Amino acid sequence: MITRLPRWIFWGGAVLAFSAGCVNTAALMGFTRLSVSHVTGNVSLFAAALAYLDTSSILFIGAALLSFLAGAILSGFVIGQTSLKLGRRYGSALYIEAALLLISYLLYQQHDYLGQLAAAMACGLQNAMVATYSGAVIRTTHLTGLTSDMGAAIGNWLAGRSISKPTLGFQAIIWYCFCGGGVVGAFLYARVGYGAFLLPIAIVLLAAFIYNYASDHLPEIRQPDSKKRSSSR
After folding, report:
1. What is the pTM of this model?
2. CA 149/CA 16 separation, integer angstroms
3. pLDDT tens digits along 38-72
4. Residues in CB range of 84: below 8 A, 6 or more apart
């Protein structure tokens, strides 16, 4: 249960949720009309395509689902852990995500369906970067499980049971930031098309740079080294 939320986790979750909301809305408004961050809905569309033997949709939606999975696999390979902790290779994962979004933007500009696959892979990578922090599940590219967790927490609170208010607040921030990112993504797509992807690309790159700087300079990282030096004396 979260009792105190470090600022880097709060702001990191907020900006990444905003970025994912922007990407997903722009993808949905584009020529593919398919989500890049919502596996559940895409599986339903995949099932419908199977029912109607729509070969092109089966292949495309199936590839999008596998791309999201590939992004999650890449995240596990790069980071190697599911619990959130400063010092892990989140910066490297974010740089890879930014590269995938840039590739997606360039392909989308050419009306190439591979752009969808690159964007889905980026979302899978981001969503799998972190699974838990102090027992709380953290996801930044979709809201289904998070909304369920929020509802359960509010229900417990109404019943007079204790809940983690910082956890509930953090989940609410992610919810609103994803929604806000979707609003901005729709606004930008209506005006600059797939140029809307440039904003989340910039956000992810900035997040990677700030994280790498913070992980190299914050005391939370330096303490283990100082303890080693003191013990060696």
Report:
1. 0.86
2. 19
3. 999 999 999 999 999 999 999 999 999 999 999 99
4. 9, 130, 132, 133, 138
